[in-house]
Amino acid sequence: SDKDVASLFDRENGRIDPQIYTDEALYQQELELIFGRSWLLLGHETQIPKAGDFMTQYMGEDPVIVSRQRDGSISVFLNQCRHRGMRICRADGGNAKSFTCSYHGWAYDSAGNLVSVPFQQEAFPDLKKEDWGPLKARVETYKGLIFANWDSEAPDLDTYLGEAKFYMDHMLDRTEAGTEALPGIEKWVIQCNWKFAAEQFCSDMYHVGTTSHLSGLLAGLPDEIDIREVQPPTTGIQYSAPWGGHGSGFYIGEMGTLAAVMGMKILEYYTSGPAAEKAAKRLGSAVRGSQATGQHMTVFPTCSFLPGINTIRTWHPRGPHEIEVWSFTVVDADAPAEIKEEYRRQTIRTFSAGGVFDQDDGENWVEIQSVLRGHKARSRPFNAEMSLRETNTADPDWPGTISYVYSEEAARGFYAHWSRMMTAPDWAALNATRPTPNADVSA
Ligand code: FES
Ligand code: FE
């Protein structure tokens, strides 16, 4: 990169240098400075319920093994044999007491300790096995979701999530039973930079009313819903949390939209009846329990959710020009079997590899990425100044810095945090520049 990294995003004027989506050197810096230091989503606790259960995952481009220990804790370690670097485990998941490298047979226990080396006495008489285990990551969970971080200096997960927890609870904490993951992780590839996906999910309600999703909404419209109830939302808020990007579009009371996306059964389950009442009690208001749908959010950098629709995905980067999407769906653990099945059916139809709405979003990102192959196409900044001059305020009901649902404040928060992560030498420096929640961030 020939430009100063700090100049690539201009917060004051809402300008994005397109180079951040294409530059290979910047991408390598992202792997080190962002993916090497942030809390990254690895899945849901119910995906590995029993001792010995494991799944293979990624932290950025680094493959890892996520494995349940006998004491109930979870270990995460690099899926790389220390002998010559072969993947220690090549399965997607399963149950195992140990992992044996398929190249020369070094074996690791389920916590990632090297426990056996073939012909060790004869061939490696001086080898100390305790020195040759794979790199281990910090692991913490939030209401069922498993996160890991390579950086020992990073704040704990609770601090990192901050104000975002309140919004995550609308999906994760509607019942004392918590959530469970529906079986299976869907994985697919999109030819676009990871930031297009992560930013859109944290901030962009603007695209919903244009070509992007109108046809999908119309195609899935239940007979009971009048299309006039499925207009793009006009009420709602957007928030930006201090660790950036934990932004969210959020609107309230536009019930037609949830029905058009997820059908009448889910609408009824989510907005009326005992489950909604319980949620209202737990979340502290009827609005939050039964009407706070249509939310979308990103936990920086690559973990996005659609509470209400309940898809959760990680946008794993694969170079500056490609992502692998890993996606699963959660449901209230105590929901009736019929509702769980309906969530499975509807999320496959809407937000999945072949889902109508994921198709719409992906098509835009792929086209942008393709346009950015042009030299002139990268010569001028993108515009992210929506609602830039509006005063963003504190709101007693909604934590974070609050702006209108049609704003790019959460996107600006996302890129401001990106910029901080790309320029701060360590977490001590990041903590020193932590924005104050509820402050006017345009100041
Ligand atoms: Fe794993 Fe040789 S690379 S045992
Ligand atoms: Fe979309």
Question: How many distinct helices?
Answer: 13
- Approximately what portion of the residues adopt beta-strand conformation? 15-25%
Low-confidence stretches are: none
Structural class comes to alpha+beta
| Domain count | 2
- Give me the CATH fold name of the largest domain: Naphthalene 1,2-dioxygenase Alpha Subunit, Chain A, domain 1
Main attributes?
single chain; 443 residues; alpha+beta; Rieske Iron-sulfur Protein; Naphthalene 1,2-dioxygenase Alpha Subunit, Chain A, domain 1; ten-stranded antiparallel beta sheet; four-stranded antiparallel beta sheet; 30% helix; globular; binds FE2/S2 (inorganic) cluster; binds fe (iii) ion
Commentary on this structure:
The protein is an alpha+beta fold. The protein has two domains: 40-141, Rieske [2Fe-2S] iron-sulphur domain (Rieske Iron-sulfur Protein), CATH 2.102.10; 162-432, Naphthalene 1,2-dioxygenase Alpha Subunit, Chain A, domain 1, CATH 3.90.380.10. It is built from 13 helices and 23 strands. The chain has helices at residues 24-33, 120-123, 157-161, 164-172, 194-203, 211-219, 255-271, 274-283, 286-291, 337-350, 356-371, 409-423, 427-432; strands at residues 9-10, 15-16, 40-44, 53-59, 62-68, 74-78, 93-95, 98-100, 107-109, 114-116, 138-142, 145-149, 179-181, 186-190, 237-240, 248-250, 296-299, 303-306, 311-317, 323-332, 382-383, 393-395, 398-404. Strands 13, 14, 15, 16, 17, 18, 19, 20, 22 and 23 form a ten-stranded antiparallel sheet that branches. β9 and β10 (114-116) form a beta hairpin. The model has no long low-confidence stretch (mean pLDDT 90). Fe (iii) ion binds at residues 207, 212-213, 357, 360-361. One of its GO terms (molecular function) is dioxygenase activity. InterPro entries: ARHD_Rieske_2Fe_2S (IPR015881), RHO_NdoB-like_C (IPR043266), Rieske_2Fe-2S (IPR017941), Rieske_2Fe-2S_sf (IPR036922), Ring_hydroxy_dOase_asu_C_dom (IPR015879), Rng_hydr_dOase-A (IPR001663).
